[in-house]
Design the sequence.
């Protein structure tokens, strides 16, 4: 069995990359004082009996740096989209203009910027935990192979491979967090 063991590092890397992709998505939803269509991605609208992302009920545009517009395709959904935005916790007050909903993005104050950096830190910690969970799964596979007769040298080799991959991903999370915090604090 010891010669047959091959840890699927590609699978571990794919799962860790998934944690990074999720982190980027969460970071994109944090508003930094500039308008971005991605800030509306987590907002879901009750449309046609199911919860639907905003970008599937209308066109989201960013005509200027402090304005997002949503051109709702179905007039019957305009009020539901407005309600979803108000209840989303984004802190944006939608303004109606027919089937177009305008979202003026207010300037962030210092206190709100600090709160957002803490939220970004929480998102990064969740990503680190997810990456460590993947590492633990890899280490468990190695321990199982060791019990099935893997040599100690092979065990040490695979453990160092998993740890190196984990360290690289944690550094990537930390760099992404530093970048996002700098972006949030930029006035």
Sequence:
């Amino acid at each position: 069995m010891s010669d047959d063991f091959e840890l699927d590092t590609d699978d571990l890397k794919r799962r860790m990359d998934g944690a990074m992709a999720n982190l980027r998505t969460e970071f994109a939803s944090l508003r930094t004082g500039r308008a971005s269509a991605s800030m509306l991605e987590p907002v879901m609208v009750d449309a046609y009996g199911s919860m639907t992302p905003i970008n599937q009920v209308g066109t989201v545009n960013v005509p200027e740096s402090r304005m997002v517009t949503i051109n709702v395709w179905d007039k019957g959904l305009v009020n539901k989209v407005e309600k979803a935005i108000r209840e989303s916790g984004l802190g944006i007050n939608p303004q109606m203009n027919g089937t177009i909903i305008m979202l003026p993005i207010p300037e962030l104050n210092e206190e709100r910027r600090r709160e957002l950096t803490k939220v970004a830190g929480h998102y990064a910690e969740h990503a680190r935990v997810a990456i460590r969970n993947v590492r633990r799964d890899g280490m468990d596979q190695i321990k199982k192979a060791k019990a099935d007769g893997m040599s100690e040298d092979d065990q040490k080799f695979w453990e160092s491979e998993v740890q190196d991959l984990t360290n690289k991903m944690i550094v990537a999370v930390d760099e992404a967090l530093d970048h996002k915090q700098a972006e949030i604090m930029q006035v």
